[in-house]
Structures are given as C-alpha cells and as structure tokens.
Amino acid sequence: MSRVRCRVQSFALTALACLAWSNAAMAQSQLAFAGPVTINPASGLDQQGGNIGYTFTVKNSGSASAADTKLSVTFRPNNIPIFDSTKKCVFTRSTTSLVASCSLGSIPAGTPTNPKTATVVLVVHPTNVDPRDVSAEVTEGGVSRATQTGTSTITAVGISDVSVAADVSPNPAWRGSPLTYIVKVANCCDDDAQEVVATLVLPANTTFVTASKGCTHVGDLVTCKIGHLTTAGPNSTRTVKVEVKPMVCGYAYATVGARLKTPDPTMSNNAVGVQVFVNNTSTYTACP
Fold first, then answer.
1. What angle do CA 288, 219, 228 make, to 5 degrees?
2. Which one of 2.60.40.1530, 3.30.1360.110, 3.90.190.10, 3.30.460.10 gives the CATH number of domain 31-156?
3. Are the C-beta atoms of residues 246 and 278 closer than 8 Å to each other?
4. In this structure, how many other beta carbons lie within 10 angstroms of the beta carbon of residue 80?
C-alpha cells in the first residue's frame, strides 16, 4: 500500500509541475509603444532655449514581465545631447547619427486594458534647420519588439560658434625676458555667445607677470572672463594679453581654450596650442 501511495503522490506532483510549467510557458510579455513619439516643439522656430524634447512611452500588456528592456533612439548627427530623464542613456555619435541607448530594466506584467509603462524623455539641441527625423526601437533580451519614427521641422536655429586663436611675441623668446601671449576669441555664427571664458595654461618654468583686465592667475592657469560676444561687429571678438617670463632655455608649450554657456557645435576650434623657443641669451648659445 505504501508503494502505491508513493506512486500516486509522485504522479500528482508531476502533474502539478507540468501544469505550472505550462502556465509559465503561456505567460508572455507583449511590448509596444503606447503611442506616437511626442515632440516639442514639432515645427517652427526653435524654442525652450533652442532645445527639442522627445517623449517615448513603452508599454507591456502581456502576462509576464519584460526583462532586460532597452530603448534605442537614433537622431541625426547634428544634434547636441542635453537631457535624459532616466539617467541611464548613453549617447554615441558617428558621422551619420547620434544614438541614445537607454536601459529600462524590467517592465512588470500588465493587461491589454491596464498595461504597465516606462517613459523616457530625451532632449537635444539642433544645430541646423533640416528635418529632425528620429527613429526608435524597443528590445527585450536583445530581440526587437517594436519600432516607431517621428519628425519635426525647425525653420530657424540660433547657434553660436566660438573660436580661439593665439600668438606669442617675441618669437623666438629669451630666458628671463618678457614674453606676451595674445589670445583672440571670436563668435562667427548667427546667435550671441553667452558667458564666454578664455583659459591659458602657461608653460612650465615660467613666471607670471601680468594679464588684461578680467583675467585671474592661479598656479599655471590664467582665466579671462570674455563675457558676451555678439554675432557681428566689434563686440563679436575680444583680445586679451598675458605676459610671462620664461626661466628655462628650450621649447615652451602653452594651451589656450575657450568655453561658453550657449551651445557650440564645433568644438575643434575651441582650443589651440602655442609653441615658442626660448633662447639662453641674446647671443645664440645652445641650451645646456
């Protein structure tokens, strides 16, 4: 009798296990976008400081949670990333696109009438006026579940583009004699540049002497407040001078840079290096 009871119990447990496995196999997630991407502004002049916000809502109406859910959003390359509501998006730029890869984690199970959702808000700053095409894809465990596209048309974009140039005098220089760095900062585009600051990293083995008004000196760094640069006219450029005394013979290397509060799409012209040879005396002799 005991053997029969054991067999019956074993059969019942197996049946329950099979039923649980069957129910688990039938439970599936069902991911989709809850609606079209919301774009603000969708057209017209640039607003909100020149930024455009994109809102994506992903829903799960399936009976199982959606694990390892990710959202990938592809913008045109001429956008500057500004904001990510999840703080878990990674922006990657190439010559053809700007891609935001966002990890949404697990979205709980829902129902067709009461889906569970995850919302992502991305904000970018456009740097030209062509259509703002964007495409999005949601994946679960690396498998594509849903895609969508959207577009906005911006007819005017204000953008500043600050560049920096530097020279040195005299060139060549002499040990222990004054050497002046001339730094010119300019704004070349159609929007004013706000809160511009120029920096000069002095060469090693130099003694700071003086600098233009608005400049401060700490250690080997000189910081000059340039302020507001307009789009044209005399207020679109500013020149500052920094005087030092090189104390060692040989090549002296300095780095000049500029930063600003407003967006600047071309960072390659925001810094420059300056090289000058420092002689030992007014009569040429080789450096020791």
1. 120
2. 2.60.40.1530
3. yes
4. 19
Q: What are the pLDDT tens digits along the chain (288 aa)?
A: 444 343 334 434 444 444 344 444 568 999 999 988 888 876 655 544 578 889 999 999 999 999 999 999 999 888 889 999 999 999 999 999 999 999 999 999 999 999 999 999 999 988 776 677 899 999 999 898 899 998 877 666 667 889 999 999 999 999 999 999 999 999 987 788 889 999 999 999 999 999 999 999 999 999 999 999 988 888 999 999 999 999 999 999 999 999 998 888 888 899 999 999 999 876 777 777
Q: 188 exposed, middle or buried (CB, 10 Å; 0-12, 13-18, 19+)?
A: middle
Give CA–CA dist 175/7, Å, rounded.
Answer: 100
CATH fold match for the domains 31-156 and 162-279: yes
Pairing of strands 237-246, 31-33: unpaired
**Where exactly are the structural domains of the chain?**
31-156, 162-279
Q: Spell out the residues 6+ positions from residue 202 whose beta carbon is closer than 8 angstroms to its own.
A: 208, 220, 221, 222, 242, 244, 254
Distance (Å, whole) CA 269 – CA 258:
9
CATH code of 162-279, in short, is 2.60.40.1510
Q: Which residues 6+ apart lie within 8 Å of 211 measured at CB?
A: 217, 222, 224, 240, 241, 242, 243
